Amino acid sequence: MRTLGPGSVSSFLKIILDVTWFALWAVIGALALASLAALLLSFNTELISKIELETDIGDKRLLGPALASALFAGALYMGGVLLIVGNLRRIFKTLTAGDPFHPDNVGRLRLIGLILAGLELGRWAFWGVAALLMPGADQDGGGLNLTTWFSVMVVFVLAEVFREGARLRREAELTI
Question: Are 60 and 49 in contact (CB under 8 A)?
């Protein structure tokens, strides 16, 4: 089976990325609506006082804004994932067209690396703020994730490989 061009593995993966892209839009919409609902729920303190939690977060009036903030942070995170998938769709579009070393792919890969790093830094910030605002809540998610940072480095190295491939292609086009 071919890896590049129409009817190849890359065209199949592009279809999967297209479906994922639309699914992410649906998830972001659902998270935004849930965040709005949690924020509106926070105005009705009688409903919030009836909610039982396994952890003690202190004042239950903070539950609505805390839940809304967490859902909004989830929507922002999914927005970052959506940007990554959107750039991957564009990269796979060039792969399906048989042009893997398109010059735009270098910038797309660099952007993917920056977004991955930003998502990880945002995760740290979220867990740091959560630890300050809700000291009794579970705080297991704020540690260093070596897999993520390794992925960021791999994406930046791949961007340089694609940059070199685009340069070599440009030189080959100039050769008579």
Answer: yes
